[in-house]
Amino acid sequence: MPGDQAVVRLVNAVVLSKGFPLLSGVNLEVDRGSLSVVTGANGAGKTSLLRLLAGLDSLTSGEGMVAGVNLNGGDLRLLRRRVGWLGHEGSFYADLSARENLEFAARALERPADEVGSALERVGLTHRVDTTTKQLSAGQRRRLGLAWLLVRRPELWLLDEPYASLDDAGRTFFDQLLREVVAAGATVVISAHDPLRSGGISPQHFHMVGGRMRTT
Amino acid sequence: MTRVAWLVAGKDLRIEARSRVLLWQVLPFGVIALLLSGLALGPTHAGNSTAGPGLFYLVTLFVALLMINRSQALENAPGTRASVATLGLDPAGVFLGKALALTVELWITGLVLLGGSVLVLHTSLIGTVHALPSVLVTLAALAAAGTLYGALTQGGDGPATLLPVLTLPAFAPLLIAGERSYSAALHGGALWEWWVIVVVALVAYTAVGILLYGVLEES
């Protein structure tokens, strides 16, 4: 609805995969320009929730509205264009270099090519721009994932275990980036095993158990 | 659509050039398969046999199946699929781009195998040159059909081993028409009639791919 502050609104959302419940009636509301952290044990449904919000999986039952797109019969392609996804597996073509991967994203989104250089500089990968992604360390791939999102500039950032493989410097950089992104008006939803330690922002915490949400 | 097609084709060809799977794995396999076919015919029959075009297309089929699986596997690496999906690329453009890249790869392979046919199966060089246009169009049609069926077997949970089974009905008319056209170029006959069949198939598979690739991706 016009003027609605909620970027994400799920009501009794259920997602089934081959009959198995990945989400078992999730209720969630996330305000625009906020930072939310979803915690939970392995298999609690954190990744499934983010995939639903990204339009990568379909809603089996319940109601959902994400970034202005109705999850029941709405245009999921439009939703995907509005979100940025950083999965914990990596996000790229392994045989392309860091620069080539970002150039592919920039051209796909019709963004200026100079954004690629500035994004790589921002995440501290200027010395590895011509290295193929498969030769990057896990932490460097994670930084490249952040550069990918900087090029994309989505209105909703969905980050699945973003701190995995990052060293202390990487975590500090990531916290700073989060603050800037949220200050710029983007909405960020993070999945993590533990509560966020980010300073300077007061995130909204959610906890998942067995595919259900428990507000903390 | 055209912009996305060029983007995806360029990306696939760059990955292929970087990984050199075509050069060091697919082409040697095709050449060895052709060599074994020549040995199976034996020195007496190799020069006189009418089996040359059929053996060429049989080897091409094996190679094409490898390359189709490879083309789809690029998109199915862990994490890649989800990230690229959020770019919101036009599926028709993605289909055209992947089919175009596969066509180029099959053309390179086809030229090598045609040369191998002349050397190993002793097919006529002049006849092979005459057959070249029909071979190129047949390989383009195989690429279009293969890209379509490749998405069907690898887009969801379908095992890649289903590809040969599923593509058989689509590939069989193409292979028959291609073989007949090649034979006509070598030995005389209705070259253009078979050639037209392949052109129609190329147009049909391309049109179906443009229309349905998005649905297959979603499924």
Key descriptive features of the protein:
heterodimer, A: 216 residues, alpha/beta, Rossmann fold, 6-stranded mixed beta sheet, 4-stranded antiparallel beta sheet, 6 helices, globular, B: 219 residues, mainly alpha, 85% helix
Question: What layout of secondary structure does this protein have?
Answer:
The complex is a heterodimer of chains A (216) and B (219).
Chain A: E1 6-17, E2 20-31, E3 35-40, H1 46-53, E4 61-66, E5 69-70, H2 76-82, E6 83-86, H3 98-108, H4 114-122, H5 138-152, E7 156-160, H6 168-183, E8 187-192, E9 204-209, E10 212-215
Parallel strand pairs in A: 3-8, 3-9, 6-7, 7-8
Antiparallel strand pairs in A: 1-2, 1-4, 4-5, 9-10
Helix pairs in contact in A: 3-4, 3-5, 4-5
Chain B: H1 2-19, H2 21-46, H3 52-73, H4 80-85, H5 91-121, H6 125-154, H7 163-187, H8 191-218
Quaternary structure type: heterodimer
Tell how many strands the DSSP assignment of chain A holds. Answer: 10
| Fraction in beta strands of chain B | under 5%
As residue ranges, the low-confidence spans of chain B are none
| Termini gap of chain B | 21 Å
How far apart are the termini of chain A?
A: 27 Å
Helix content estimate of chain B: over 70%
Q: What is the CATH architecture descriptor of chain A?
A: 3-Layer(aba) Sandwich
Described by the principal axes of the CA atoms, the overall outline of chain A is globular
CATH class of chain A, anyone?
Alpha Beta
How would you sum up this structure, described in words?
- The complex is a heterodimer of chains A (216) and B (219).
- Chain A has 216 residues and is of the alpha/beta class.
- Chain A is 31% helix and 29% strand.
- Chain A has a single domain (6-215), classed as P-loop containing nucleotide triphosphate hydrolases (Rossmann fold).
- Chain A is built from 6 helices and 10 strands.
- In chain A, strands 6-7-8-3-9-10 form a 6-stranded mixed sheet, with helices on both faces.
- In chain A, helix 3 (98-108) packs across helix 4 and helix 3 (98-108) runs parallel beside helix 5 (138-152).
- Chain B is mainly alpha-helical and 219 residues long.
- Chain B has one domain (2-218).
- The mean pLDDT of chain B is 86.
- Classes of the chains: A alpha/beta (216), B mainly alpha (219).
- Chains A and B meet through helix 2, strand 6, helix 3 and helix 5 of A and helix 1 and helix 4 of B.
